[in-house]
Design brief:
This protein is α+β, with helices and mostly antiparallel strands. The protein is 19% helix and 46% strand. It is built from two helices and twelve strands. The strands form two sheets. Strands 4, 5, 6, 7, 8, 9 and 10 form a seven-stranded antiparallel beta sheet that branches. The protein has a five-stranded antiparallel beta sheet with strand order 1-2-3-11-12.
Length: 188
């Protein structure tokens, strides 16, 4: 995904995806690795995930599933209206949906933990925690709108023309050791 950059100030950039959507980000760290500039970015607005409850074929319980990108358009206006009731503005931004506005405080009863399909180095299931912001119904299906409790960090690199590109998962695996070393050096 090629991204263009429009500087807001020295500590912020705007990523642009191939569809022309923008994602304003705060620059958390910037460093050189293998002759390229890499940036660790944090979206300025809160990232939003939309999940749908679906019947598990092997079980009687409902399971929470990611809504695919192509299905977001169908639910978007409903989700936007539901979040507007909380003074949040749902935005169709690059890389992720975001919500502008002040999020409510995360409390134990409005958080959920999802078990991902991956295992960590110790062989334990990888989990991700979310704050539930709202639920809504669309065409007889229940949707849950959440924001991750952990920050959404985005690695990007600046190419020779000065344009920022999001680091692909494959490139990340190739440079992971060097990135970790640079980040540890910066934290010291």
């Amino acid at each position: 995904m090629a991204d263009n950059t429009q500087p807001i100030d020295e500590s912020a950039v705007v990523l642009t995806d191939d569809a022309g959507r923008f994602l304003p980000c705060q620059v958390e760290q910037s460093f050189q690795l293998n002759g390229r500039e890499y940036l660790l970015l944090l979206p300025i607005d809160a990232p939003i995930e939309i999940f749908v409850w679906q019947q598990d074929e092997n079980d009687e319980d409902d399971i929470l599933m990611d809504v695919e990108d192509e299905d977001i358009d169908q639910i978007f206006l409903t989700a936007k209206a539901v979040l507007a009731e909380q003074n949040l503005t749902l935005q169709r931004t690059a890389i992720t949906l975001t919500a502008a506005g002040e999020l409510p405080e995360a409390e134990e009863d409005n958080c959920l933990t999802l078990e991902l399909d991956d295992l960590d180095e110790a062989g334990n299931p990888v989990t991700e925690e979310f704050q539930i912001l709202a639920t809504c119904f669309y065409e007889d299906e229940e949707y849950t709108l959440c924001t991750p409790l952990d920050p959404l960090l985005i690695f990007a690199s600046r190419n020779s023309s000065g344009t920022l590109e999001v680091v692909t998962p494959e490139e990340f695996q190739l440079i992971r050791g060097g990135l970790e070393e640079k980040l540890f050096d910066l934290l010291e």
